[in-house]
Each structure stands twice: as C-alpha cells, then as structure tokens.
Amino acid sequence: MLLHYSYYIFPLCISLSWSYTEYDVERYEKLINDGISASLNYVLPTDSRIYEPKLTRLPIDFGTWDFIVVGSGSTGSVVASRLSEISNWRVLVLEAGEFNSEFNTITRMSYEATIMSDYNWGYYSVPQNNSCLGFEENRCSHPRGKGIGGTALLNALIYLRGNKIDFDKWCGMGNPGWCYEDVLPLFKKSEDIHATDPEAPIDASYHSCGGPLRVQQQMPKSDLTTVFIQANMEMGSNLSDLNGYNQTGVMPFQVNTKFGRRQDSGTAFLLPVLNRKNLKVLTKSLVTKIVIRGNKTEGVIFVRNGIQYKVRARKEVIVSAGTINSPQLLMLSGIGPANHLSSKGIPVVKDLAVGSHFSDHIQVYGLVFSSNVTSPIHSLRKKIEEYLGEGMGFLSKFAPSQAVVYYRTPIQANPDYPNIELSFQDTNATSNALTKCQRWKPEVSDAIAGINSTSSFQIFLTPLHTKSQGTVRLKSSNPYEYPIIDPNVLSDPEEHDVRTVLEGLQLVMKIIDTEAFKKVNAQFSMKSPPACSHLEFRTEEFWRCAIKYITSHNNHPVSTCRMGPSPESGDVVDAQMRVHGVEKLRVADASIIPLSTSSHINSICYMIGEKLADIVKNTYLIKKSY
Ligand SMILES: Cc1cc2nc3c(=O)[nH]c(=O)nc-3n(C[C@H](O)[C@H](O)[C@H](O)COP(=O)(O)OP(=O)(O)OC[C@H]3O[C@@H](n4cnc5c(N)ncnc54)[C@H](O)[C@@H]3O)c2cc1C
C-alpha cells in the first residue's frame, strides 16, 4: 500500500474552557447522585403499553405535512434537520421518547444510569444457544435509545467511520452512490473536528471543520492506554488516524463530545434548528402504523398521551426508527415476509424480507488483565471540577475505552481489510446500572471479575464481518408488544465467526506478551466459567466452551431492512432508500446497512441521514425546476 503523508497535528478548530462556580459543583453532585440512585431502582419496560390509547375511537386528523420522519435518533435527527433547511417544506418529526436531559449530557452517565431509565427501550434477545449463556435466561440485553438523539443517548460516542472497502462493497452489491468516494464528503459535511490530543495524528484531508457534529479525542490518556498503544506498535501497527487514509493501525479514540458533553444527534443536529417555523417535533409520540392504500403511502397513525392521531404526508414518510423498530413498524403495516405476516393476521401489502438478515459485530467480554500500574481514584467533587472546568476526565468519557486497534487474522484474505477490532479499557469498565441491565449470571461475572480494580484493564475483542444472521419478528399484530429479537450470534454453519473469535483470542494473548505489557507485569486474570472448568484452561476446547458464556452481540445491529436492488434476494429498500414496491416510503437508519462495516456504526447513521437528505432534495428540487 502507498504511504500517504498528509498527516497534520494541529488544533483544527479552537477549543475554549468553561468557568464554573461552587454552586455548579454542588448542583452537579446532587444531579449525579440522584440520577444514579434512580437508575438502580428502575425497572426496564417489557412492552409499549404505556402509550396505549385509553379510549377506542377513530384517530383525530393531524393534518398534512410534506415529510413525516418517524424516529429522531442518530439518523432521523439528521434527516429532519437537513430537510427542514428547505423553508417551504413542512417537516413533522414523531419520536416515541423525550428530549435529552442535562443529566444525560454528562457523557459518563449513559453508562452509569441512562441505560437503566426511560431513555432505553429495554429490549432483550430470545434465549440463545451459542452466545449470551453468561446472562440470565441466556438472553442478551439489547439497549436501544428512546428520545431525541436515539441510541446516541446511550452509546459510547466512539467516532469511527469504517474502512473504504466496506463502502466499495456496498456499491458493488448494486447500490450506486454508496462507494467510499461518494460517502466521504457526507461524513465530512457533518463534522467539526477538534484535535485535542497532541500525540495522536489527524489526517486533515479526511476531516473538516464547522459541521454540526463535534469530533475530538478523549483526554487525558491514562498510562495504561499508552502501554496498549506501545504494545501494538511493537506488534507492527502504525499510530494512525483510522478515519483517515490508513485504516489499519492503532489510535486513541475519536469521540463525539464537546467540552466532554455528549454530542448525540439530537443535541448536534436537531436542537440548534428547533426554532424553524416549518419544523415540528412531537415527543412521546409512538407511531403504530404506516397507512398505505394500494401501494401508495398516505401517512401514519400515532399515539400521544393516550390519543390516536392520523397524519398525512404530501411527499413522503421516512422511517428512521432503528434496526429493531423500523422492521417492526413495517411489518405491523403489512410490509414483510408474507408467511410471517399472515401467521399474525396482518394483511400483506408487500412481501419483502423485512426483519431478516439481522447481523451484528460480536463482543467478547472477560479478557481481563491485572497490572502493576494503579490509576488514581478521584472524589466525585474532583471529577465534577475536571468536567465543568476543562471538559475532561472521568465524567467526560462514556467508559475508559481509550484506544482502538484493527488487525487482520489469517481467516481474512485481503491484507488491507481488517477483521478484528480490539478496544482498550482501563479500570471501571462497568457500572452498577450496566451490570443490572446486562443481567450477568453471578457465577460468570465472578469468573471475569477484576474489571473494577484500579490496576486492571480489559481488552474488548470484536470480530468484524460476521457471517451469522438473526431476525426481528413480530410477537403479534399488537403494536404495543415488543418484537422478538434473535441475534443468533456465533451460529454460522461454517463456523467462520467462531474461528475468527479463536484467532482474535490468540492475537490478544500475543499483544499481552509484548515488552510493553511485560514491563507493567500484565497477567491474564479471567477464570473459567464453571460450565467449562472441566476443560484445560486456554486450550481451543476451553475457549470454544467459554466464548458461549462471555460473548454477546455488540450493539451494532444492521441489515433488517437491507438496501439493495433485488427484493427477490431479500433487499427491502433500493439505493435511494425507497421501500421496494411501495411509493412515498423510505427507510433511513442502521437497518438499511447492506453489509456490516469495519467499525462502530453511529457515524455511518449520520452519513445515511445526510445522504437521504441529499437524495430527497435532488429529487424534489430538481424536478421543480423543470
Ligand atoms: C450501549 C451502546 C453503545 C454504543 N456505542 C457506540 C459507539 O460508541 N459508537 C458507535 O458508532 N455506535 C455505538 N452504538 C451503536 C449506535 O449508537 C447505533 O447503531 C445508532 O445510534 C443507531 O442509529 P439509528 O438511527 O439506526 O437508530 P436510533 O438512534 O436507535 O433511533 C431510532 C429512534 O426512533 C425512535 N422510535 C423507534 N420506534 C418508534 C416509533 N414506532 N414511533 C416513534 N419513534 C420511534 C426511537 O425512540 C429512537 O429515538 C452503541 C449502541 C449501544 C446500544
């Protein structure tokens, strides 16, 4: 591969620090203590009955809008923001959740509390056979954000765009306009990069300044993070900007925070434009059905405060309800696998493979190590002062996941296409709220204990390009029932995914064997899950058993409304995100991603939102000028 020398280390945009008073510190202390204790008493919902109308009567007419956007998550907020730039288009946003709160904008709180609050739909998978055995009932939690900002209200804010080969593959699958050279300008359009880590390179020609979405590096870096970076450089990795030209290597994470505050899509894209007269955002509004007559979309039915409404779309309905809820809504509206819909008594509008092809990255937990480096423990007060003053430190980070590296293992043929992501977390890689949400079985969490110690660290192993596929299906035709989620991780018959995990485990152990990690006396400290204790520790047989207990999907589900040219082969939307065979209806969110990428997917959702807006503008504005 050619070397590319356009690296610059410079503050691309100017950052300032904020001032605060003693009163602010005390207020934040109370805010944080109250928020965390509320989360520990919170019980996640198991359905959407809270929205159910109190009276049975015909829906009230809510008028006609040019565009109706269903869901204001990572993608929907971008769509609504960009479409409402056209002042004579009336845009209505219907979002089931609420606006974000001040508490949730404290980046770390998503991990400490928000995950156990009304901002999480609270989904769980059905019992699994090949993964999730470490969790109660063998069911994995499946957090999905509910509110303006969507799953970016809960997420780790890691900003990684994926490998150029990912997008060239999308293009090659019959999706013109989605090659890397097409989508790179869209990533840049959203972005406002601030280089905050003088030691980490930023490839300036791949970034831009002035967009709505702040991107910066987490600071300060811990000593152990520096060891991780050195260890990987010893292994041959370059210190790179993985969002730049070289997409293999090691890098301190780039994240979406602004002065340490959460920059979810609502905060970044929608809140700044809420005063537009042509934009209406309705929260606490659950869309229960897309109304389609013949093959033409008329509008949607939604419920708000126990009252049903019908609203019509003059131009289009855009569904951005996410990888679980978009297929649910389509199926409730008659778009989905005909047999499945008929079995639930739903009249079929269009027979499409909605809810099929669910795929996700894999997350292997439990790769826990001890070291002789002890991280300092600060009081809450000190953490608040760091956060309010400089936007740095513990509260400014979702979790201490501070660096990432990509590798290719032998199972992956293309040398430029990594298939393993390792992310590094030092100390406190969990919280009481997260543990409560995940529902670890005590005997398994004991085996991987140690992650709270101030001198331990954890490496999350994430195999990419997985072959296993799962489904999202309806429990019934009742829109207030949760759908059935079956991620089916580690199930592909050729064992591609299991073999990738095994190769990844070998790689992790090699990294721990480097001089850099030897110097800090890094020792593997995971114990055997009880069900595998009859097997010799760390042999292939042992790992084949253990990974069923310590592996889950990685919160990056995609492809349940897959984009592609061929409905007969399972594609749901075309390259313009139009639902095949149904007029005036598009889906734009992670569910359309045709093939999982070599990265986290939130920034890709922003890119999809930008793309949708460009396509729609080109469609209607160009037509109008004829
Ligand atoms: C714990 C966790 C950590 C993660 N960390 C990262 C990370 O660090 N980096 C990264 O890149 N990715 C991360 N992800 C993944 C990423 O955040 C999601 O993939 C992305 O936010 C999905 O965006 P979306 O637009 O598809 O859907 P969402 O953001 O989920 O938006 C869907 C919206 O639609 C609303 N909605 C749904 N149904 C209805 C309905 N019927 N009526 C009205 N409204 C409805 C929802 O309430 C929600 O607001 C993480 C995910 C999780 C769960």
TrEMBL record:
Cofactor entry: FAD
Tagged with keyword Flavoprotein: yes
Binding site for FAD: T151, V287
SUPFAM superfamilies, per database record: FAD-linked reductases, C-terminal domain (SSF54373), FAD/NAD(P)-binding domain (SSF51905)
Entry keyword set: FAD, Flavoprotein
Listed GO MF terms: flavin adenine dinucleotide binding; oxidoreductase activity, acting on CH-OH group of donors
Glucose-methanol-choline oxidoreductase N-terminal domain residues: 322-336
Positions of the catalytic residues: H556 (proton donor), H600 (proton acceptor)
InterPro entries from the UniProt entry: FAD/NAD-bd_sf, GMC_OxRdtase, GMC_OxRdtase_N, GMC_OxRtase_C
Assigned protein family: Belongs to the GMC oxidoreductase family.
Name of the molecule in the record: Putative GMC oxidoreductase
